[in-house]
Amino acid sequence: MKITTWNINSVRLRIDHVTRFLKEEAPDVLCLQEIKCLNDNFPAKALSAAGYEHQAVSGQAGYHGVAIISKLPLKNVEIRGFCDKGDCRHIAASVAGGIRIHNFYVPAGGDEPDPKKNEKFAHKLDFLDEMRDWFGELGPRSKAVLVGDLNVAPTENDVWSHKQLLKVVSHTPIEVEKLNAVIASHGWVDVARELIPEPEKLYTWWSYRAKDWRASNRGRRLDHIWVSPALKKPALALGRDAYRIHDDARDWEKPSDHAPVSLKFDL
C-alpha cells in the first residue's frame, strides 16, 4: 500500500496537479491539506474520474480543510475538532487491514514565536498539546498512520540552517519539544528519520519568496508520515526507496510550496 500526503494549497486551483500526480504516481491513498474549499465545492468528480472514488472531506471556505481520497474503501470516517476553534484540521478513516489513517493540518503559528504576543502561536502550541493528550489514549496495538502538514521541522537537519531558524516559527525549541511529546504519547515512528537518518538533510517545503528555490534550497521538513509501533515493521520493510519526497512537483507551473511525500508499506 502506498500513502501520500500533500499540502496542496487550494485543491481547486491545483486540481490538474493532483490528477497529474495520481496518474504518474498512483498512490492507493492521498491525504490532502489546505484544500481551501467547502465540501460541496470539492472536485469530487475529477478525482473519481481519476480512479479515486472513495473520498472523505472536511472542508472550510477559503482556509484550512483536509481530505482523504482513496482507491480503497474508507470506513469509519471521523472528524475531530481541536482548541474549540471550528477549524477543519483533522480527518481520519480506516482502510483495508484495519489501518487507521489520521490526516492533520497543524496551525502554522504566525510569525512571532511568543504565545503571549501572538495568539496564532499560542493556538499552535495548544493544538499540539491536544494531539499529545488524545493519542496518549490509544492502545498499544492500534494500527495507525499519522500524516500531514504538521508545520514543525523537528531536527537540526530538517531545516537549511538550524542556528538561523531557532527563533523562527516551525523550528523553535518549544515547538520541537511539543511535537516530540506527541510522538512519545503513542510511540509514533517518524518513518523519514528511521529510513534516512541524520545528518542527511530532508526538506518538503520551500518558500515562494525564493526566485530559484532549488538553487537556494532553503527548505524545511514540515510534512510527515508517522506510524504506530504495530506498523513499524511493514512501514520500514521496503527500505529507504519506499519513502519519497516528490520535489519535482515543486517545479510544476504555479505549484504548492509543499512537495508530496509518499511511503510504500509491505502489507
Automatic annotation (TrEMBL):
The enzyme's E.C. designation: 3.1.11.2
Domain Endonuclease/exonuclease/phosphatase: residue ranges: 5-258
UniProt keyword annotations, A-Z: Hydrolase, Magnesium, Metal-binding
Gene3D superfamilies: Endonuclease/exonuclease/phosphatase
Domain of life: Bacteria
Needed cofactors: Mg(2+)
CDD domains, per the entry: ExoIII-like_AP-endo
SUPFAM superfamilies: DNase I-like
Enzyme class: hydrolase
Protein transport found in the keyword field: no
Molecular functions per Gene Ontology: double-stranded DNA 3'-5' DNA exonuclease activity
NCBIfam families reported in the protein's UniProt record: exoDNase_III (TIGR00195), xth (TIGR00633)
Family listed: Belongs to the DNA repair enzymes AP/ExoA family.
Protein's recorded name: Exodeoxyribonuclease III
Phylogenetic classification of the source organism: Bacteria, Pseudomonadati, Pseudomonadota, Alphaproteobacteria, Parvularculales
